[in-house]
Write the C-alpha coordinates for this entry.
Amino acid sequence: MANMIATRDAYGEALKELGKKNKDIVVLDADLSGSTKTAIFAKAYPDRFFNVGIAEQNLIGTAAGLATTGKIPFASTFAVFATGRAYEIIRNSVCYPELNVKIAATHAGLTVGEDGATHQALEDMSLMRSLPNMVVLNPADAVETKQCIYKAAEHHGPVYIRLGRSKVPVIFDEDYKFEIGKGVELREGVDVTLIATGIMVSKALSAAEKLAKEGISTRVINMSTIKPIDEDIIIKAANETKGIVTIEEHNIIGGLGSAVAEVVSQWKPTYVERIGTMDVFGESGDGELLLEKYGLNEGNIIDKVKKILSK
Amino acid sequence: MILETRDMMYRDLENIAKQIRIDIINMLKESGSGHPGGSLSAVEILTALYFKEMNIDPKNPRWPDRDRFVLSKGHGAPVLYATLAMKGYFPKEELNNLRKIDSMLQGHPDMKGTPGVDMTTGSLGQGIAAANGMALAGKIDNKDYRVYALIGDGECQEGIVWEAAMFAAHHGLDNITVFLDHNGLQIDGPNKDVMSIEPIRDKFKSFGWHVIGIDGHSFGQIFKAIDEAKNIKGKPTIIIAETVKGKGVSFMENQVGWHGKAPSEEEAKKAIEELGGIING
Protein backbone atom coordinates (compact mmCIF):
# COMPACT_ATOMS: atom_id res chain seq x y z
CA MET A 1 0.00 0.00 0.00
CA ALA A 2 1.39 3.34 -1.05
CA ASN A 3 1.96 6.14 1.38
CA MET A 4 -1.08 8.47 1.36
CA ILE A 5 -0.61 12.25 1.53
CA ALA A 6 -2.95 15.07 0.43
CA THR A 7 -1.40 17.45 -2.08
CA ARG A 8 -2.48 20.39 0.10
CA ASP A 9 -0.30 19.03 2.92
CA ALA A 10 2.68 18.87 0.60
CA TYR A 11 1.91 22.44 -0.45
CA GLY A 12 2.10 23.68 3.14
CA GLU A 13 5.44 21.95 3.66
CA ALA A 14 6.83 23.23 0.36
CA LEU A 15 5.83 26.80 1.18
CA LYS A 16 7.63 26.66 4.49
CA GLU A 17 10.73 25.30 2.78
CA LEU A 18 10.51 27.98 0.11
CA GLY A 19 10.01 30.71 2.71
CA LYS A 20 13.29 29.74 4.32
CA LYS A 21 15.23 29.97 1.06
CA ASN A 22 13.60 33.04 -0.41
CA LYS A 23 12.74 36.15 1.60
CA ASP A 24 10.56 37.48 -1.21
CA ILE A 25 7.98 34.73 -0.71
CA VAL A 26 4.83 36.21 0.83
CA VAL A 27 1.68 34.19 1.51
CA LEU A 28 -1.94 35.37 1.53
CA ASP A 29 -5.01 33.41 2.52
CA ALA A 30 -8.73 34.11 2.74
CA ASP A 31 -9.66 32.64 6.12
CA LEU A 32 -8.87 29.06 5.12
CA SER A 33 -5.24 28.80 6.15
CA GLY A 34 -5.89 25.72 8.27
CA SER A 35 -7.47 23.96 5.30
CA THR A 36 -5.15 25.19 2.56
CA LYS A 37 -2.16 24.52 4.86
CA THR A 38 -0.72 27.99 4.45
CA ALA A 39 -0.96 28.02 8.25
CA ILE A 40 2.28 26.01 8.22
CA PHE A 41 4.01 28.94 6.52
CA ALA A 42 2.19 31.44 8.75
CA LYS A 43 3.55 29.74 11.84
CA ALA A 44 7.11 29.76 10.52
CA TYR A 45 7.05 33.24 8.97
CA PRO A 46 4.27 35.27 10.59
CA ASP A 47 5.71 38.53 9.21
CA ARG A 48 5.23 37.33 5.66
CA PHE A 49 1.77 35.87 6.03
CA PHE A 50 -1.38 37.95 5.60
CA ASN A 51 -4.95 36.90 6.11
CA VAL A 52 -7.30 38.95 3.96
CA GLY A 53 -10.43 37.51 5.53
CA ILE A 54 -13.23 36.12 3.40
CA ALA A 55 -12.51 38.43 0.50
CA GLU A 56 -11.11 36.63 -2.53
CA GLN A 57 -11.15 39.61 -4.85
CA ASN A 58 -8.90 41.58 -2.52
CA LEU A 59 -6.83 38.44 -2.00
CA ILE A 60 -5.83 38.49 -5.65
CA GLY A 61 -5.70 42.27 -6.00
CA THR A 62 -3.36 42.60 -3.03
CA ALA A 63 -1.19 39.78 -4.37
CA ALA A 64 -0.95 41.71 -7.64
CA GLY A 65 0.19 44.85 -5.84
CA LEU A 66 2.79 42.88 -3.89
CA ALA A 67 4.11 41.40 -7.12
CA THR A 68 4.66 44.86 -8.62
CA THR A 69 7.29 45.45 -5.92
CA GLY A 70 9.22 42.23 -6.56
CA LYS A 71 7.58 40.07 -3.93
CA ILE A 72 6.51 36.56 -4.92
CA PRO A 73 3.04 36.20 -3.46
CA PHE A 74 1.32 32.84 -3.09
CA ALA A 75 -2.43 33.37 -2.72
CA SER A 76 -4.49 30.48 -1.46
CA THR A 77 -8.08 29.55 -0.85
CA PHE A 78 -10.44 26.90 -2.21
CA ALA A 79 -10.30 26.50 -5.98
CA VAL A 80 -13.93 27.52 -6.51
CA PHE A 81 -13.40 30.89 -4.87
CA ALA A 82 -9.85 31.48 -6.08
CA THR A 83 -10.72 31.04 -9.73
CA GLY A 84 -14.43 31.82 -9.76
CA ARG A 85 -15.02 34.62 -7.29
CA ALA A 86 -11.79 36.37 -8.19
CA TYR A 87 -11.71 35.49 -11.88
CA GLU A 88 -11.83 38.95 -13.31
CA ILE A 89 -9.23 40.26 -10.86
CA ILE A 90 -6.95 37.43 -12.00
CA ARG A 91 -7.63 38.39 -15.59
CA ASN A 92 -7.11 42.13 -15.37
CA SER A 93 -4.78 42.64 -12.40
CA VAL A 94 -2.59 39.55 -12.72
CA CYS A 95 -2.57 37.96 -16.18
CA TYR A 96 -2.87 41.05 -18.37
CA PRO A 97 0.05 42.84 -16.63
CA GLU A 98 1.80 39.43 -16.34
CA LEU A 99 2.50 39.87 -12.66
CA ASN A 100 4.42 37.30 -10.68
CA VAL A 101 1.47 35.97 -8.67
CA LYS A 102 1.08 32.31 -7.74
CA ILE A 103 -2.43 31.09 -7.06
CA ALA A 104 -2.28 27.80 -5.20
CA ALA A 105 -5.84 26.63 -4.76
CA THR A 106 -6.85 23.62 -2.73
CA HIS A 107 -10.07 21.60 -2.51
CA ALA A 108 -10.35 21.20 -6.27
CA GLY A 109 -12.67 18.59 -7.70
CA LEU A 110 -15.21 16.09 -6.42
CA THR A 111 -12.94 14.81 -3.67
CA VAL A 112 -13.82 17.87 -1.62
CA GLY A 113 -16.52 15.39 -0.70
CA GLU A 114 -19.13 16.18 1.91
CA ASP A 115 -19.23 19.97 1.37
CA GLY A 116 -20.93 19.30 -1.93
CA ALA A 117 -21.31 21.03 -5.28
CA THR A 118 -20.83 24.63 -4.12
CA HIS A 119 -17.29 23.80 -3.02
CA GLN A 120 -16.24 21.34 -5.72
CA ALA A 121 -14.37 23.23 -8.44
CA LEU A 122 -14.83 21.37 -11.73
CA GLU A 123 -14.17 24.27 -14.07
CA ASP A 124 -11.09 25.92 -12.56
CA MET A 125 -8.57 24.56 -15.06
CA SER A 126 -10.82 25.64 -17.90
CA LEU A 127 -11.07 29.17 -16.52
CA MET A 128 -7.35 29.48 -15.85
CA ARG A 129 -6.28 27.83 -19.09
CA SER A 130 -8.05 30.43 -21.21
CA LEU A 131 -6.17 33.34 -19.65
CA PRO A 132 -3.12 34.52 -21.60
CA ASN A 133 0.19 34.38 -19.64
CA MET A 134 -1.20 31.88 -17.11
CA VAL A 135 0.60 28.61 -16.42
CA VAL A 136 -1.68 25.84 -15.10
CA LEU A 137 -0.26 23.01 -12.97
CA ASN A 138 -2.11 20.02 -11.53
CA PRO A 139 0.29 17.77 -9.62
CA ALA A 140 -0.42 14.08 -9.14
CA ASP A 141 0.96 13.49 -5.67
CA ALA A 142 2.80 14.99 -2.74
CA VAL A 143 6.26 14.69 -4.31
CA GLU A 144 5.21 16.38 -7.51
CA THR A 145 3.29 19.06 -5.60
CA LYS A 146 6.44 20.17 -3.81
CA GLN A 147 8.32 20.39 -7.08
CA CYS A 148 5.47 22.29 -8.72
CA ILE A 149 5.60 24.83 -5.93
CA TYR A 150 9.38 25.27 -6.24
CA LYS A 151 9.20 25.54 -10.03
CA ALA A 152 6.27 27.95 -9.84
CA ALA A 153 8.34 30.20 -7.60
CA GLU A 154 11.23 30.12 -10.10
CA HIS A 155 8.97 30.85 -13.07
CA HIS A 156 8.42 34.56 -13.64
CA GLY A 157 4.73 35.20 -14.24
CA PRO A 158 1.31 34.02 -13.13
CA VAL A 159 0.92 30.36 -12.17
CA TYR A 160 -2.19 28.48 -11.07
CA ILE A 161 -1.56 25.33 -9.02
CA ARG A 162 -4.50 22.99 -8.47
CA LEU A 163 -4.44 21.01 -5.25
CA GLY A 164 -6.71 18.54 -3.53
CA ARG A 165 -8.18 17.97 -0.13
CA SER A 166 -8.01 14.19 0.15
CA LYS A 167 -5.10 11.93 0.86
CA VAL A 168 -3.83 10.37 -2.36
CA PRO A 169 -1.16 7.74 -3.03
CA VAL A 170 2.44 8.91 -3.36
CA ILE A 171 3.50 7.79 -6.83
CA PHE A 172 6.90 9.38 -7.29
CA ASP A 173 10.27 8.82 -5.66
CA GLU A 174 11.94 11.78 -4.02
CA ASP A 175 14.34 12.04 -6.99
CA TYR A 176 11.49 12.61 -9.46
CA LYS A 177 12.10 15.69 -11.59
CA PHE A 178 9.16 17.87 -12.57
CA GLU A 179 9.48 20.42 -15.32
CA ILE A 180 6.84 22.99 -16.31
CA GLY A 181 5.41 22.09 -19.72
CA LYS A 182 6.64 18.49 -19.76
CA GLY A 183 4.37 15.48 -19.60
CA VAL A 184 5.97 12.32 -18.25
CA GLU A 185 5.50 8.81 -19.55
CA LEU A 186 5.05 6.66 -16.46
CA ARG A 187 4.37 3.40 -18.24
CA GLU A 188 5.21 2.20 -21.71
CA GLY A 189 2.44 0.88 -23.89
CA VAL A 190 1.54 0.35 -27.54
CA ASP A 191 -2.24 -0.17 -27.72
CA VAL A 192 -3.87 2.84 -26.09
CA THR A 193 -2.56 5.89 -24.22
CA LEU A 194 -3.97 7.13 -20.95
CA ILE A 195 -3.27 10.80 -20.31
CA ALA A 196 -4.17 11.65 -16.75
CA THR A 197 -3.73 14.67 -14.55
CA GLY A 198 -3.75 15.35 -10.82
CA ILE A 199 -5.08 12.72 -8.49
CA MET A 200 -6.39 10.66 -11.43
CA VAL A 201 -2.85 9.62 -12.35
CA SER A 202 -2.76 6.90 -9.72
CA LYS A 203 -6.10 5.56 -11.00
CA ALA A 204 -4.73 5.50 -14.55
CA LEU A 205 -1.72 3.51 -13.36
CA SER A 206 -3.83 0.93 -11.57
CA ALA A 207 -6.20 0.64 -14.56
CA ALA A 208 -3.18 0.06 -16.83
CA GLU A 209 -2.00 -2.66 -14.47
CA LYS A 210 -5.34 -4.44 -14.74
CA LEU A 211 -5.44 -4.04 -18.51
CA ALA A 212 -1.98 -5.58 -18.76
CA LYS A 213 -3.34 -8.70 -17.12
CA GLU A 214 -5.84 -8.90 -19.98
CA GLY A 215 -3.03 -8.52 -22.49
CA ILE A 216 -3.72 -4.88 -23.32
CA SER A 217 -0.66 -2.66 -23.40
CA THR A 218 -1.50 0.81 -22.11
CA ARG A 219 0.80 3.80 -22.11
CA VAL A 220 0.31 6.13 -19.14
CA ILE A 221 1.26 9.79 -19.27
CA ASN A 222 1.20 12.14 -16.30
CA MET A 223 0.17 15.55 -17.61
CA SER A 224 0.77 17.79 -14.64
CA THR A 225 1.17 20.91 -16.75
CA ILE A 226 -2.18 21.68 -18.34
CA LYS A 227 -0.81 24.88 -19.87
CA PRO A 228 1.49 25.12 -21.73
CA ILE A 229 0.48 21.60 -22.74
CA ASP A 230 3.21 19.18 -23.88
CA GLU A 231 2.24 18.83 -27.54
CA ASP A 232 5.13 16.50 -28.43
CA ILE A 233 4.24 13.77 -25.99
CA ILE A 234 0.58 13.90 -27.12
CA ILE A 235 1.43 13.76 -30.83
CA LYS A 236 3.83 10.88 -30.19
CA ALA A 237 1.08 8.97 -28.38
CA ALA A 238 -1.33 9.72 -31.22
CA ASN A 239 1.20 8.36 -33.71
CA GLU A 240 2.13 5.27 -31.78
CA THR A 241 -1.12 4.08 -30.15
CA LYS A 242 -4.67 3.55 -31.40
CA GLY A 243 -6.28 6.23 -29.31
CA ILE A 244 -6.13 8.36 -26.20
CA VAL A 245 -8.18 8.38 -23.01
CA THR A 246 -7.92 11.56 -20.96
CA ILE A 247 -8.71 11.40 -17.26
CA GLU A 248 -9.26 14.42 -15.01
CA GLU A 249 -11.20 15.30 -11.90
CA HIS A 250 -12.77 18.19 -13.79
CA ASN A 251 -15.52 18.91 -16.28
CA ILE A 252 -14.80 17.25 -19.63
CA ILE A 253 -15.22 20.75 -21.08
CA GLY A 254 -12.21 23.03 -21.01
CA GLY A 255 -9.61 21.05 -19.10
CA LEU A 256 -7.14 18.31 -19.96
CA GLY A 257 -9.49 16.48 -22.36
CA SER A 258 -10.07 19.64 -24.33
CA ALA A 259 -6.38 20.51 -24.38
CA VAL A 260 -5.43 17.07 -25.70
CA ALA A 261 -8.24 17.13 -28.28
CA GLU A 262 -7.06 20.54 -29.48
CA VAL A 263 -3.55 19.21 -30.06
CA VAL A 264 -4.46 15.99 -31.86
CA SER A 265 -7.16 17.60 -33.99
CA GLN A 266 -4.53 19.96 -35.35
CA TRP A 267 -1.50 17.66 -35.69
CA LYS A 268 -2.67 14.06 -35.76
CA PRO A 269 -6.42 13.42 -35.72
CA THR A 270 -6.91 10.61 -33.23
CA TYR A 271 -9.76 8.99 -31.38
CA VAL A 272 -9.96 10.63 -27.94
CA GLU A 273 -12.21 9.51 -25.09
CA ARG A 274 -12.53 12.08 -22.32
CA ILE A 275 -13.15 10.99 -18.75
CA GLY A 276 -14.23 13.69 -16.33
CA THR A 277 -17.48 14.99 -14.94
CA MET A 278 -19.96 15.05 -17.80
CA ASP A 279 -20.83 18.76 -17.64
CA VAL A 280 -22.69 18.36 -14.36
CA PHE A 281 -22.21 19.65 -10.82
CA GLY A 282 -21.12 17.33 -8.04
CA GLU A 283 -22.87 16.58 -4.76
CA SER A 284 -22.18 15.70 -1.14
CA GLY A 285 -20.69 12.37 -0.20
CA ASP A 286 -17.48 10.53 0.47
CA GLY A 287 -14.85 11.58 -2.06
CA GLU A 288 -13.97 8.09 -3.25
CA LEU A 289 -17.65 7.18 -3.62
CA LEU A 290 -18.20 10.34 -5.66
CA LEU A 291 -15.33 9.43 -7.98
CA GLU A 292 -17.01 6.03 -8.47
CA LYS A 293 -20.44 7.52 -9.05
CA TYR A 294 -19.22 10.05 -11.60
CA GLY A 295 -17.15 7.55 -13.54
CA LEU A 296 -13.74 8.73 -12.43
CA ASN A 297 -12.60 5.21 -11.73
CA GLU A 298 -10.62 2.26 -13.03
CA GLY A 299 -13.72 0.57 -14.42
CA ASN A 300 -14.58 3.48 -16.68
CA ILE A 301 -10.95 3.85 -17.80
CA ILE A 302 -10.85 0.16 -18.73
CA ASP A 303 -14.18 0.46 -20.59
CA LYS A 304 -12.95 3.44 -22.60
CA VAL A 305 -9.71 1.69 -23.54
CA LYS A 306 -11.68 -1.31 -24.77
CA LYS A 307 -14.07 0.97 -26.63
CA ILE A 308 -11.13 2.47 -28.52
CA LEU A 309 -9.71 -0.96 -29.30
CA SER A 310 -13.09 -2.16 -30.60
CA LYS A 311 -13.24 0.58 -33.23
CA MET B 1 7.92 85.67 2.14
CA ILE B 2 6.99 82.01 2.61
CA LEU B 3 3.45 82.83 1.48
CA GLU B 4 4.77 84.50 -1.64
CA THR B 5 6.84 81.42 -2.49
CA ARG B 6 3.83 79.22 -2.03
CA ASP B 7 1.76 81.47 -4.26
CA MET B 8 4.44 81.22 -6.93
CA MET B 9 4.46 77.47 -6.64
CA TYR B 10 0.69 77.33 -7.00
CA ARG B 11 0.84 79.60 -10.03
CA ASP B 12 3.35 77.25 -11.63
CA LEU B 13 1.18 74.26 -10.84
CA GLU B 14 -1.88 76.04 -12.19
CA ASN B 15 -0.05 76.61 -15.45
CA ILE B 16 0.91 72.96 -15.61
CA ALA B 17 -2.68 71.93 -14.85
CA LYS B 18 -3.93 74.19 -17.63
CA GLN B 19 -1.53 72.62 -20.11
CA ILE B 20 -2.53 69.11 -18.98
CA ARG B 21 -6.17 70.01 -19.64
CA ILE B 22 -5.25 71.24 -23.11
CA ASP B 23 -3.30 68.05 -23.76
CA ILE B 24 -6.26 65.94 -22.63
CA ILE B 25 -8.58 67.69 -25.06
CA ASN B 26 -6.07 67.44 -27.89
CA MET B 27 -5.39 63.76 -27.34
CA LEU B 28 -9.08 62.88 -27.11
CA LYS B 29 -9.80 64.83 -30.26
CA GLU B 30 -7.02 62.85 -31.98
CA SER B 31 -8.18 59.48 -30.69
CA GLY B 32 -11.86 60.06 -31.36
CA SER B 33 -12.80 58.19 -28.21
CA GLY B 34 -12.02 58.27 -24.49
CA HIS B 35 -13.15 59.85 -21.25
CA PRO B 36 -12.81 63.63 -20.88
CA GLY B 37 -15.13 64.27 -17.90
CA GLY B 38 -13.36 62.19 -15.28
CA SER B 39 -9.95 63.12 -16.65
CA LEU B 40 -10.56 66.85 -16.31
CA SER B 41 -11.93 66.48 -12.78
CA ALA B 42 -8.68 64.92 -11.54
CA VAL B 43 -6.13 67.28 -13.12
CA GLU B 44 -5.19 69.19 -9.97
CA ILE B 45 -4.81 65.98 -7.96
CA LEU B 46 -2.41 64.43 -10.47
CA THR B 47 -0.55 67.68 -10.99
CA ALA B 48 -0.03 68.07 -7.25
CA LEU B 49 1.18 64.49 -6.89
CA TYR B 50 3.49 64.29 -9.91
CA PHE B 51 4.88 67.83 -9.92
CA LYS B 52 5.34 68.39 -6.23
CA GLU B 53 4.54 65.59 -3.89
CA MET B 54 5.73 62.24 -5.17
CA ASN B 55 9.29 61.05 -4.84
CA ILE B 56 9.78 59.75 -8.38
CA ASP B 57 12.33 59.69 -11.17
CA PRO B 58 11.02 59.77 -14.75
CA LYS B 59 14.45 58.52 -15.92
CA ASN B 60 14.05 55.44 -13.73
CA PRO B 61 10.34 54.65 -13.73
CA ARG B 62 10.79 51.31 -11.92
CA TRP B 63 13.01 52.71 -9.16
CA PRO B 64 12.14 50.41 -6.24
CA ASP B 65 12.01 53.16 -3.60
CA ARG B 66 9.72 55.48 -5.54
CA ASP B 67 6.31 56.61 -4.41
CA ARG B 68 3.57 54.85 -6.35
CA PHE B 69 0.36 56.01 -7.98
CA VAL B 70 -2.51 53.72 -8.93
CA LEU B 71 -5.20 55.17 -11.17
CA SER B 72 -7.97 52.92 -9.98
CA LYS B 73 -10.45 54.76 -12.18
CA GLY B 74 -8.49 53.62 -15.21
CA HIS B 75 -10.77 55.36 -17.71
CA GLY B 76 -9.08 58.54 -16.51
CA ALA B 77 -6.06 57.38 -18.54
CA PRO B 78 -5.85 60.65 -20.52
CA VAL B 79 -5.05 62.71 -17.41
CA LEU B 80 -2.42 60.17 -16.36
CA TYR B 81 -0.83 60.05 -19.81
CA ALA B 82 -0.81 63.84 -20.19
CA THR B 83 0.78 64.15 -16.75
CA LEU B 84 3.39 61.45 -17.38
CA ALA B 85 4.31 62.97 -20.74
CA MET B 86 4.70 66.42 -19.25
CA LYS B 87 6.80 64.95 -16.45
CA GLY B 88 9.08 63.43 -19.08
CA TYR B 89 8.32 59.71 -18.87
CA PHE B 90 7.82 59.57 -22.64
CA PRO B 91 7.71 62.06 -25.53
CA LYS B 92 4.64 64.25 -25.65
CA GLU B 93 4.03 63.30 -29.31
CA GLU B 94 2.96 59.87 -28.07
CA LEU B 95 -0.22 61.47 -26.76
CA ASN B 96 -1.44 61.71 -30.35
CA ASN B 97 -1.44 57.91 -30.53
CA LEU B 98 -3.88 57.40 -27.66
CA ARG B 99 -6.10 54.37 -28.28
CA LYS B 100 -4.65 53.77 -31.74
CA ILE B 101 -3.36 50.43 -32.95
CA ASP B 102 0.26 49.63 -31.95
CA SER B 103 0.28 52.53 -29.49
CA MET B 104 1.91 52.39 -26.07
CA LEU B 105 -1.08 54.36 -24.81
CA GLN B 106 -3.89 51.87 -24.40
CA GLY B 107 -7.45 52.91 -23.71
CA HIS B 108 -6.83 52.03 -20.07
CA PRO B 109 -3.46 52.10 -18.26
CA ASP B 110 -1.08 49.24 -19.11
CA MET B 111 1.96 49.01 -16.83
CA LYS B 112 3.76 46.72 -19.24
CA GLY B 113 3.58 49.14 -22.14
CA THR B 114 3.73 52.63 -20.66
CA PRO B 115 6.69 53.99 -18.68
CA GLY B 116 5.51 55.52 -15.41
CA VAL B 117 2.31 53.51 -15.10
CA ASP B 118 2.63 51.70 -11.77
CA MET B 119 -0.41 49.43 -12.13
CA THR B 120 -2.59 48.14 -14.91
CA THR B 121 -6.15 49.28 -14.28
CA GLY B 122 -9.41 49.84 -16.09
CA SER B 123 -11.71 47.31 -14.55
CA LEU B 124 -13.16 49.40 -11.75
CA GLY B 125 -12.56 48.70 -8.09
CA GLN B 126 -9.18 47.00 -8.28
CA GLY B 127 -6.89 49.92 -7.47
CA ILE B 128 -7.05 49.99 -3.68
CA ALA B 129 -6.38 46.25 -3.55
CA ALA B 130 -3.26 46.72 -5.69
CA ALA B 131 -2.23 49.70 -3.57
CA ASN B 132 -2.64 47.47 -0.50
CA GLY B 133 -0.08 45.06 -1.90
CA MET B 134 2.39 47.83 -2.71
CA ALA B 135 1.95 49.39 0.73
CA LEU B 136 2.25 46.04 2.46
CA ALA B 137 5.52 45.35 0.66
CA GLY B 138 6.79 48.72 1.86
CA LYS B 139 5.93 47.79 5.43
CA ILE B 140 7.56 44.35 5.14
CA ASP B 141 10.77 45.87 3.83
CA ASN B 142 10.72 48.94 6.09
CA LYS B 143 10.74 51.25 3.11
CA ASP B 144 9.29 54.69 3.49
CA TYR B 145 7.77 55.12 0.04
CA ARG B 146 4.12 56.13 -0.08
CA VAL B 147 1.34 54.74 -2.21
CA TYR B 148 -1.31 56.99 -3.73
CA ALA B 149 -4.46 55.86 -5.47
CA LEU B 150 -7.25 57.72 -7.20
CA ILE B 151 -10.69 56.18 -7.18
CA GLY B 152 -13.94 57.38 -8.70
CA ASP B 153 -17.16 57.86 -6.81
CA GLY B 154 -19.23 55.50 -8.97
CA GLU B 155 -16.40 53.02 -8.48
CA CYS B 156 -17.23 52.85 -4.76
CA GLN B 157 -20.20 50.73 -5.76
CA GLU B 158 -17.78 47.85 -6.43
CA GLY B 159 -17.56 45.31 -3.61
CA ILE B 160 -13.78 44.91 -3.84
CA VAL B 161 -13.35 48.57 -2.82
CA TRP B 162 -14.74 47.67 0.59
CA GLU B 163 -12.82 44.41 0.87
CA ALA B 164 -9.69 46.41 0.19
CA ALA B 165 -10.71 49.27 2.49
CA MET B 166 -11.19 46.80 5.34
CA PHE B 167 -7.78 45.26 4.67
CA ALA B 168 -5.87 48.55 4.57
CA ALA B 169 -7.34 49.61 7.91
CA HIS B 170 -6.91 46.19 9.53
CA HIS B 171 -3.24 46.11 8.61
CA GLY B 172 -2.71 49.75 9.57
CA LEU B 173 -1.45 50.77 6.14
CA ASP B 174 -0.76 54.41 6.94
CA ASN B 175 1.47 54.60 3.87
CA ILE B 176 -1.63 54.59 1.63
CA THR B 177 -3.42 57.79 0.66
CA VAL B 178 -6.46 57.41 -1.55
CA PHE B 179 -8.04 60.32 -3.36
CA LEU B 180 -11.74 60.01 -4.14
CA ASP B 181 -12.60 62.04 -7.23
CA HIS B 182 -16.06 62.97 -6.02
CA ASN B 183 -17.57 64.55 -9.13
CA GLY B 184 -20.98 63.03 -8.46
CA LEU B 185 -21.57 61.59 -11.92
CA GLN B 186 -21.27 58.18 -13.51
CA ILE B 187 -22.23 56.83 -16.94
CA ASP B 188 -25.94 56.38 -16.31
CA GLY B 189 -26.34 59.63 -14.38
CA PRO B 190 -25.75 61.16 -10.95
CA ASN B 191 -24.51 58.66 -8.32
CA LYS B 192 -27.45 59.61 -6.14
CA ASP B 193 -29.87 58.39 -8.83
CA VAL B 194 -27.94 55.36 -10.08
CA MET B 195 -26.79 53.96 -6.73
CA SER B 196 -26.07 56.32 -3.90
CA ILE B 197 -22.69 55.95 -2.25
CA GLU B 198 -23.52 58.40 0.52
CA PRO B 199 -22.68 59.01 3.26
CA ILE B 200 -19.28 58.22 1.78
CA ARG B 201 -17.25 59.94 4.48
CA ASP B 202 -19.02 58.00 7.20
CA LYS B 203 -18.58 54.77 5.28
CA PHE B 204 -14.80 55.10 5.09
CA LYS B 205 -14.63 56.41 8.65
CA SER B 206 -16.52 53.38 9.91
CA PHE B 207 -14.12 51.17 7.94
CA GLY B 208 -11.28 52.59 10.02
CA TRP B 209 -9.90 55.21 7.65
CA HIS B 210 -8.83 58.74 8.39
CA VAL B 211 -11.11 60.89 6.25
CA ILE B 212 -10.38 64.39 4.96
CA GLY B 213 -12.75 66.43 2.80
CA ILE B 214 -11.39 69.04 0.37
CA ASP B 215 -12.05 71.03 -2.77
CA GLY B 216 -10.27 68.85 -5.31
CA HIS B 217 -9.38 71.78 -7.52
CA SER B 218 -7.57 73.76 -4.80
CA PHE B 219 -3.84 73.10 -4.64
CA GLY B 220 -3.72 74.61 -1.17
CA GLN B 221 -6.28 72.16 0.14
CA ILE B 222 -4.75 69.20 -1.72
CA PHE B 223 -1.31 69.76 -0.17
CA LYS B 224 -2.72 70.43 3.27
CA ALA B 225 -4.61 67.14 3.08
CA ILE B 226 -1.55 65.23 1.84
CA ASP B 227 0.52 66.60 4.71
CA GLU B 228 -2.18 65.65 7.18
CA ALA B 229 -2.31 62.13 5.71
CA LYS B 230 1.46 61.73 6.09
CA ASN B 231 1.19 62.50 9.78
CA ILE B 232 -1.60 60.03 10.50
CA LYS B 233 -0.14 56.88 12.00
CA GLY B 234 -1.70 53.44 12.08
CA LYS B 235 -4.46 53.97 9.56
CA PRO B 236 -4.89 54.73 5.87
CA THR B 237 -6.24 58.09 4.73
CA ILE B 238 -8.84 58.91 2.15
CA ILE B 239 -9.07 62.43 0.80
CA ILE B 240 -12.57 63.02 -0.47
CA ALA B 241 -12.02 65.59 -3.17
CA GLU B 242 -15.12 67.46 -4.27
CA THR B 243 -14.59 67.96 -7.96
CA VAL B 244 -16.41 69.07 -11.09
CA LYS B 245 -16.65 66.55 -13.88
CA GLY B 246 -15.33 68.15 -17.06
CA LYS B 247 -13.67 70.92 -15.02
CA GLY B 248 -12.28 73.80 -17.04
CA VAL B 249 -14.37 73.36 -20.18
CA SER B 250 -17.69 75.15 -19.70
CA PHE B 251 -19.80 72.94 -21.92
CA MET B 252 -18.41 69.75 -20.38
CA GLU B 253 -18.74 70.75 -16.74
CA ASN B 254 -21.20 68.63 -14.78
CA GLN B 255 -22.48 67.06 -18.00
CA VAL B 256 -22.86 63.30 -17.72
CA GLY B 257 -22.81 63.10 -21.53
CA TRP B 258 -19.10 63.97 -21.45
CA HIS B 259 -18.17 60.93 -19.36
CA GLY B 260 -17.01 58.83 -22.28
CA LYS B 261 -17.24 60.90 -25.46
CA ALA B 262 -14.40 62.54 -27.36
CA PRO B 263 -14.81 66.11 -28.56
CA SER B 264 -15.19 66.83 -32.27
CA GLU B 265 -12.73 69.14 -34.00
CA GLU B 266 -15.09 72.07 -33.42
CA GLU B 267 -15.70 71.19 -29.78
CA ALA B 268 -12.01 70.66 -29.13
CA LYS B 269 -11.23 74.05 -30.66
CA LYS B 270 -13.80 75.72 -28.45
CA ALA B 271 -12.56 73.89 -25.36
CA ILE B 272 -8.94 74.77 -25.99
CA GLU B 273 -9.80 78.39 -26.67
CA GLU B 274 -11.49 78.49 -23.30
CA LEU B 275 -8.41 76.98 -21.71
CA GLY B 276 -6.26 79.55 -23.48
CA GLY B 277 -4.23 77.13 -25.56
CA ILE B 278 -3.73 76.13 -29.14
CA ILE B 279 -5.21 73.15 -30.87
CA ASN B 280 -3.01 70.45 -32.38
CA GLY B 281 -2.67 69.89 -36.09
